[in-house]
Design a protein that fits this description.
The chain has 365 residues and is α/β, with parallel strands linked by helices. The chain has eight helices and 21 strands. Bound molecules: zinc ion (ZN).
């Protein structure tokens, strides 16, 4: 296996649009795309068999998270070409009443969830956090009937999880997917929430040293590399995901015996070296979402030679902003050993399209 070369995102971009297709276009039943978080979008293709197996994996995800018959489910993900849409149909197949709402404001989603007695949802973490903030601010926590949430497609910290769980009164599960590899449905947490179970009958996972490409062992942090085992339209061999994880022991108290990976620490291209220290946005998120005075939204701005400014949204009701800023600086210093400047901004002023963009590197400009 280690003798086989890697496949990279650049390989796929180079053969856009149809070069990565392994079957005739007439055998394809669905074409979706990656969200293009890091540049151009990449297409992903499904044959009828690919689509059926994808739905089966998403139904498994729902089963592990405890979503099924009796649930009223909302998919907050875009219903266009993005692979998060798969959860809408899979929820029906899992036995839930599925509502494919798609993109709408967090206000509209919360209103619907209260009105329709929604019990479960799928979202990206930054969107779930927006709903959590609104629920806190408008006292909606008790009015919601939520039980379970499947969340993914961005990295998110344990403190963000706690905030989402407490404010929305929900049990939140991290799940893993990559559009090029067929979207969500590669791995998901079980109720132990100690790593994600990989659906190993469809995906072979390895963790490699991102510099040397050498395979790493259990517990060693590196880049996740995935080989598809059942995809027909776009099989990929040793695909470098760019996501930083560890392989975990596969014996899980839940009884499910599959390979397990840790939750994603960050993307390799998201790690910035500042004053010799490697910094992932997730560690800043761990702090910002643990402080009730902040919305949890943040952006890291790098400028000058190695100056870091952390922009954070302060909640409207906060009077002593200076104290909050001081506390945040101390906490970041404790965790990262880095002294940072903090720029408090108004609630709702950090905006981006789709997935969260956490780092603005102005150093090269
Ligand atoms: Zn388990």
């Amino acid at each position: 296996m280690t003798k086989l070369p890697f496949t990279t995102k650049q390989d796929l971009l180079a053969v856009y649009p149809y070069g990565a297709l392994a079957v005739s276009l007439s055998d394809v039943c669905l074409i979706l795309s990656s969200s293009g978080t890091t540049g151009s979008p990449i297409l992903t293709f499904y044959t009828e068999s690919d689509y059926k197996l994808w739905m089966e994996r998403l139904v498994r995800n729902f089963k592990l998270a405890g979503i099924g018959k009796g649930d009223v489910f909302v998919n907050t993900s875009n219903q266009g070409m993005f692979t998060g849409r798969g959860y809408s149909e899979a929820a029906s197949l899992a036995g839930a009443a599925s509502i494919p709402v798609g993109p709408a404001s967090p206000e509209r989603h919360l209103k619907l969830m209260v009105e329709l007695g929604v019990t479960s949802f799928h979202a990206v973490p930054s969107f779930a956090l927006k709903m959590a903030n609104l629920a806190e601010d408008f006292g909606l926590t008790e009015k919601l009937r939520l039980r379970k949430a499947v969340i993914g497609a961005e990295t998110w910290s344990e403190s963000t999880r706690r905030r989402i769980e407490e404010s929305l009164n929900v049990d939140a599960y991290d799940n893993y997917g990559v559009a090029e590899l067929g979207g969500p449905g590669i791995a998901i947490e079980c109720p132990e929430k100690d790593g994600m179970h990989v659906w190993a009958d469809h995906y072979l996972v390895e963790v490699v040293d991102p510099e040397t490409g050498e395979r790493l062992g259990e517990g060693e942090e590196g880049e996740l590399v995935v080989t598809t085992l059942t995809r027909e339209a776009m099989p990929l061999i040793r695909y470098r995901t760019g996501d930083v994880v560890k392989l975990l022991p596969s014996d899980c108290p839940c009884g499910l015996e599959t390979p397990k990976i840790s939750r994603v620490k960050g993307r390799i291209d998201e790690m910035v070296k500042v004053r010799g220290i490697g910094l992932y946005p997730k560690i800043i998120e761990e702090v910002t979402s643990s402080m009730p005075e902040l919305t949890g939204e943040f952006q890291i701005v790098l400028s000058g030679i190695d100056d870091i400014t952390v922009k954070v949204e302060v909640k409207r009701w906060v009077k002593d902003v200076d104290r909050v800023v001081g506390e945040l600086k101390t906490k970041i210093k404790e965790l990262t050993l880095l002294s940072v400047a903090v720029e408090p901004v108004e609630e709702g002023s950090i905006v981006y399209q789709g997935k969260a963009k956490r780092i603005l590197d102005l150093r090269q400009l």
